[in-house]
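Researcher: Final request for today, and then I'll write up notes for the group meeting. The sequence and the SMILES for adenosine-5'-triphosphate follow.
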Amino acid sequence: MRLELLGLSKRYPGCVANDAVSLKVEAGEIHAILGENGAGKSTLMKMIYGVVKPDEGQMLWNNKEVEIKGPAHARQLGMGMVFQHFSLFETLTVAENIALYLDPSELGSMAALRQHIEQVANEYGLAINPDRKVGSLSVGEQQRVEIIRCLIQDIQLLILDEPTAVLTPAEAEHLIKVLKQLAAKGCSILFISHKLHEVNALCDRATVLRAGKVTGSCVPRDTSPAEMARLMLGDGLTLTKAFEPGPSGDVLLQLKDIEVPPTDHFAIHLRQLNLSLRRGEIIGLAGVAGNGQDELVDLLNGELSATKGQVLLAGEPIQRLGVQQRRHKGMAVVPADRIGRGAVATMSLSENNLLTGCITHGAKAGLIDWKVVSARAERIISHYKVKTSGKTEMAGSLSGGNLQKFILGREIEQAPQVLVCFHPTWGVDVGAANLIHQQLIKLRDQGAAILLLSEDLDELYLLSDRLGALCAGQLSPVAPKSEVSLERLGQWMAGQFDAQHDKETCHAD
Ligand SMILES: Nc1ncnc2c1ncn2[C@@H]1O[C@H](COP(=O)(O)OP(=O)(O)OP(=O)(O)O)[C@@H](O)[C@H]1O
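Model: Predicted protein-adenosine-5'-triphosphate complex:
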């Protein structure tokens, strides 16, 4: 037996994150950990990897009892972990980040390490330039660095906390192949994912956690995704069917011949962007991470300026307006990375609510009305079923999916005219993703215009009225969803479109 957990428990003030969890993982087994947001999955993985110390329980590693002193000890034993929130230094390069992760005795010259990174990257098809600064990488690319740095050492257990959440379907499919290869070599894998069809395709066994306790197990190959969802969430779950396109109105957000040159060597050049987003519609943009999504969100948010072209909000040019002024005019943005940009980890939920919410609620003439701010935070917590001990809890101690629900709720509740959201259901369980989808459609039906950037094609097809793709900083045609086959969208994602045609399509709306 590669790994055996016997009655592991971990308590935090006001919550039992893990309650006497027992689990067995064989050599070469791919074992899924399932559970709704806040069920205790990440905490369990962090205890195995030595990031969090258990309050009680025992752990056997290759049939011998161990007490993991910390992540360095876990790595020495042959464990690797890909975290849900990246543990990378943004100001260092890919190679420097990986060097920091390795034991000094394993580290040769930087040139040799660079070569090794390229070799692993090529072997697993996870293209990355070792000399790029991590801060300039997209979320998907940062995820690749996390994965490569585990694969660079000989590992016997790889722990992955939602590794495919930010990968494109093709990348996720590729990763699944890589994991199968690794398992065939005898490496055990612990795999957390909310994407149940992936669990179904990949995993040998699954353990279900609910409120910190093991409540069931199954063999995913013999269990349908719907049955697994029911095991996790109980019988009350109703899965969303496709939403009907709604009637759209006048153009609310318009990009005209936008040109944004790269701000650093690795940023993407946005070229000739033309887009008209109407009241009451959702435009979904597909695309592989690192094709200009970050730059487009920054442009719309007011953090990047265009050197050519215009950004118009309800016909008014806004490119000279800052972030706050745009928010006053009814724009809201949900960024890709929830910690750092979406929320401040060391601030409470109330304070995080104030960060963007104060523009529409809670502050007048520079004075904060904490009663209003707290009441709003409480409303978001209850409406979006955010699992937390309360509005005073620090954002950083929430589970990933619960923080995502809070951030989404905070932006939707401001009733924006235009909502730009990037990966809206990243790391969110099926029940909560359902709720977020319904709220986005409700916002659309109230007349808001929504630009949705996602790598989850199912989600894009479910929610969007019109679909397009971003590739190498250029926008494909944007056409009604019924006219965009999966094959066509795939071609657009790969850049097979004529930029001039795109301009005509968008202007024609
Ligand atoms: N450092 C911490 N301080 C206080 N509470 C914490 C801390 N870390 C986790 N928790 C709480 O423990 C519970 C389990 O969290 P955990 O992150 O393990 O859930 P999860 O199943 O991984 O959720 P998700 O699917 O959203 O990532 C949650 O209620 C969370 O708020």
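Model: The radius of gyration is 23 Å. The first strand starts at residue 3 and ends at 12.
Researcher: Thanks, that's everything.
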